[in-house]
Amino acid sequence: MKNNTLYDVEKIANAESIDVKLEDIKLDSYNVRFLHLPQKLSDKEIEEILWDEKDTTELYRQILSAGGVYEEPVLNSELIVIEGNRRIVCLRKLKQEANKGGLPGISKNHFDKVKCKILPKNTPPQIIDIFLATIHVKGKKPWNAFNKAKHIFNLYDSGGFSYDDLSKKLGMGKSTVIRAVEVYGATQKYGDKYKADKEWFRKFTYFDELYKRKDLKEFRKEDKNLERFENWVFHKKLDDVREVRQLAKILQDEDAFKEFEKNDFDAAMNLIGLKDPSINSVEFKKIKDTIDVLRNFSRKELSKTVKDDSRLKLLNSLKKEIDSLVKDITSMKKTS
User: Fold this and answer.
1) What CATH number is attached to the domain comprising 69?
2) Residue 310 belongs to what domain range?
3) In Å, how far are 150, 179, 197 from 192, measured between CA atoms?
């Protein structure tokens, strides 16, 4: 499909608005929230899931207070929700209450109809997908990271859009778009490979961390390493996403890596801690950070220190404390 599709989303914004009976509107079983689930959900199941989402109750209160929705839901020609599923769920609940006379000051039929934008019958799916991306990927109602990445992946995987297209339309850096595609693709590949992991989509954060870290860039270039990573995640060698942030340290230490393969993450990090006390000690972490500051002391700061005795005094105090600490430790070692 031609890339000028990127600009045809205006057709959705300018779609005709009409009153629709709430009972005729169907929730979208192909909503990005549900695509990772093994089976298609019924309308009732979708309603229950959306009603249980943490922000839905607040949206319900907002609609009740306003007496209606601020933004019109968008439906396709078959009256399936394209955008606004949670609003429809809230309106259904309000309609039930109103019909029973349970909303003081509001007529029984107040929520029986809702004004919606109706898309032309032959609206291309790519236009709808870009429209949803402008709202939920980079817009004012963002999806969670997994759903954002999934939607960007689907847009790219459809073959209709390049990385440059998506970067421009979504207002995101090209590298961010590429990472979203790579991370979701890797997560989906993991899910396809390890079907026993029914919660595979929750491992998205592990792959997101893998592709985020610069110190793992070389590691993830090789397919065999990605396969090893998948295996570690599935077999819980990496049992917490925060452990991925320390993985490079293990990979760079041959002994630690052997310990990781033989036992687990904690055993490997304990071995590294014996070689580098800054790993497990807050005090030595600060000392190591101080050493890094001194090693990278800028010429600008150096020039200021030459002209400022208070700065030199502070450095001399640091040297004095270090010399005293080393002297005490050396003395204790001789007597121990």
Assistant:
1) 3.90.1530
2) 303-335
3) 15, 20, 9
